[in-house]
C-alpha cells in the first residue's frame, strides 16, 4: 500500500523534448495508477478536448513558418484554457488523477524559448488564460539532443502521415528547448522533477513511480 488516494487526486504533467519516451512512460504510469485502485484521466496537449483537438490540427499541420511564434502560443493556450475547464478540472472534481502529456511548460519551452516569443511573455499568457491553476507535479524527461533526435527519426519511419513541424527544426532549436526545461525546473523545484531519460523504459518508469510515491504517498 503506497497511499495514493482517490480523495486527493493530483494533476501530473510529463514534459520533455523529442524522443524522450513520454508516450510510453505515460501509458506505464497510467497502468500503475489504475493498479493502485485510482481512477485516472489520461490526456495530452495540444488537444485533450474536442475543441482543443481542432486547434491542435491547426497548429501541428502544415509548413514550419505557417504561424508566428506568438500566434502559435496564443492558439495553443486557447486550447489549453478549453482543455482545463472542460476536461481537466471536471476530472479532478470527480476524483480522477489526471496525467497529461505536455502542458504549459511546453509552451514556455517551444514558443517562449525555441521560437523566441520570450519566456516571460508566454508565462504571462498562461496566467491570463489559467489564473493560478498549475500541475501538482511536473516530470521533465531530460535527454541529450542528439540522442532524442535520433530516437525521433527512428520512430518517424513507423508513422504514416506525421506532420509534426517541430521535429523538423534544427539542433539549436532543440538545445534551446532543453535549456528552457532545465531552467523551469531550477526555478520551480517544488513542482518540477528532472529525470534522465537516457536509460531503459523500465528504469525510467521505476523512477517516475518513486517520485510520485515520494511526493504523494502516505
Ligand atoms: P506530439 O505529436 O504530441 O509530440 P510529442 O510526442 O513530442 O509530445 O506533438 C506535440 C508537438 O507540439 C511537440 O512537438 C511539441 C509541440 N508543442 C508546442 O510547441 N507547444 C505547446 O504548448 C505544446 C503543448 C506542444
Q: What is the second-level CATH architecture?
A: 3-Layer(aba) Sandwich
Percent of residues in beta strands? 5-15%
Helix fraction, binned, reads 40-55%
Number of DSSP strand runs: 5
Overall pLDDT metric: 92
List the uncertain runs.
Answer: none
Summarize the main sheet: 5 strands, parallel
Using the alpha-carbon principal axes, give the shape: globular
Bound molecules: thymidine-5'-diphosphate
Q: Can you list the strand order of the major beta sheet?
A: 2-3-1-4-5
Determine the number of helices (DSSP H or I, runs of at least 4 residues).
8
The computed structural class is: alpha/beta
Question: What's the alpha carbon Rg, rounded to whole Å?
Answer: 17 Å
Level-1 CATH class name = Alpha Beta
**Sequence of secondary-structure elements:** EHEHHEHHEHHEH
Please, could you describe this protein's structure?
This protein is of the alpha/beta class. The chain has a single domain (11-216), classed as Rossmann fold (3-Layer(aba) Sandwich). Helices cover 54% and strands 12% of the residues. The protein is built from 8 helices and 5 strands. It has helices spanning 22-35, 50-60, 69-93, 104-114, 119-130, 145-156, 171-187, 201-216; strands at residues 11-16, 40-44, 97-101, 137-142, 192-196. Strands 2-3-1-4-5 form a 5-stranded parallel β-sheet, sandwiched between helices. Helix 2 (50-60) packs antiparallel against helix 3 (69-93), helix 3 runs antiparallel to helix 4 and helix 4 (104-114) packs across helix 7. The longest helix is centred in the middle third of the chain and has 25 residues, at 69-93. The radius of gyration is 17 Å and the shape is globular. The relative contact order is 0.20. The mean pLDDT is 92. The structure holds thymidine-5'-diphosphate. Thymidine-5'-diphosphate binds next to helix 1 and helix 4.
Amino acid at each position: 500500500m503506497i497511499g495514493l488516494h482517490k480523495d486527493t487526486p493530483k494533476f501530473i504533467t510529463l514534459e520533455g523534448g523529442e524522443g524522450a519516451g513520454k508516450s510510453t512512460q505515460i501509458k506505464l504510469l497510467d497502468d500503475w495508477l489504475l493498479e493502485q485502485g485510482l481512477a485516472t484521466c489520461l490526456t495530452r496537449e495540444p488537444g485533450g478536448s474536442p475543441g482543443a483537438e481542432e486547434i491542435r490540427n491547426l497548429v501541428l499541420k502544415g509548413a514550419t513558418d505557417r504561424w508566428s511564434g506568438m500566434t502559435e502560443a496564443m492558439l495553443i493556450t486557447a486550447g489549453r484554457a478549453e482543455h482545463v475547464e472542460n476536461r481537466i478540472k471536471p476530472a479532478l472534481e470527480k476524483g480522477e488523477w489526471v496525467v497529461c502529456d505536455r502542458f504549459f511548460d511546453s509552451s514556455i519551452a517551444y514558443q517562449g524559448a525555441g521560437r523566441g516569443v520570450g519566456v516571460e511573455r508566454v508565462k504571462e499568457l498562461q496566467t491570463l488564460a489559467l489564473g493560478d491553476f498549475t500541475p501538482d507535479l511536473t516530470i521533465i524527461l531530460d535527454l541529450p539532443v542528439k540522442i532524442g533526435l535520433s530516437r525521433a527519426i527512428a520512430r518517424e519511419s513507423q508513422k504514416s502521415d506525421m506532420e509534426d513541424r517541430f521535429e523538423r527544426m534544427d539542433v539549436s532549436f532543440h538545445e534551446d528547448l532543453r535549456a528552457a526545461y532545465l531552467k523551469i525546473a531550477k526555478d520551480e523545484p517544488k513542482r518540477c522533477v528532472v529525470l534522465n531519460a537516457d536509460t531503459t523504459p523500465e528504469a525510467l518508469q521505476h523512477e517516475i513511480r518513486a517520485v510520485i510515491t515520494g511526493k504523494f504517498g502516505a
